[in-house]
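re: ur question from earlier - yeah i can do the single chain one, its not a big deal. heres the input i used so u can compare w yours
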Amino acid sequence: MPADTQIRATRRPQGRLIGYARVSTDEQATQAQEMELRSAGCSDIVQEHGSGASRTRPALSKLLREIGAGDTLVVVRLDRLARSVGHLLEVIEDLTAKGAHFRSLRDPIDTMTPQGMFSARWPSSSAR
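and the output i got, formated as tokens:
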């Protein structure tokens, strides 16, 4: 088959796709995020209610302790996960150290791809 007609297979993680949905107040619902995460293939979804500025995120902390090699943490948008760029890089580095991956559905970060790893690591290497 000619090179221009070959179909490239995308490598998917061996582990689970685990969604993380966060809203800022108890009056808000995670339902829209959950629907989008399920559509992306997440069978497990961790929910959290808490301000984006708060350092206290017990559900996220537990998820990061328990996530395994090959698993992928999936969020709808980066602002649902991280308080800052530094916090985002810390989470991605922790996941990478465990052999886990990170993907944002609406932002161009998917650490399963070379471009995603570059975009996730570039700011941290230039900040040092």
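Helices lie at 31-39, 58-66, 85-97, 114-127. not sure if urs matches, ping me
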